[in-house]
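Example 3.2
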Amino acid sequence: MPSRRDCFFNATPEEAEEQIDALNKQLSLDFKRTSGAYAVFDAIDETNNSIMECKRRTCCATSYDDTLIGLNKYECWKKKYSTYNFYATFMFQDGLYYFKFDNQKTLEEQGLFITTNHKDTVYNNQTNYEKKHINIPTEMLMPIGNSIKIIPRLKKGVCYLNT
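Structure, written as tokens:
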């Protein structure tokens, strides 16, 4: 299995378009790809007051218990787009999923947590910059299209018996 660090990438423009089209179809939204090198988010829907960030993963959706998105995206949303809905899409090797952040709840109330265990060598052009991320449990991701709902894995030492 590749290291977790090797599993996380930004979506290419083509992959982002695929994610945008799929979420538009799934939720009857009207996201349009943002343009410009300094666009903070990948897509915006001005009609429905929504923003979207697209991520690509080279692993399967169930490879890990959670997936990541930069805390900087969440903070930008809260600061500049607080009246908008915020969707993050994740294209895994075996499916496409989304998560909708709840503006009325804290990260903790949403079952999310922050980590700094991912070294980012690109962010701010600083080698080994310790970028903070939000960990989203994969079981909280919603499937898009034909993707299969993620069932939580059994925790080590847990056994379920049918009675």
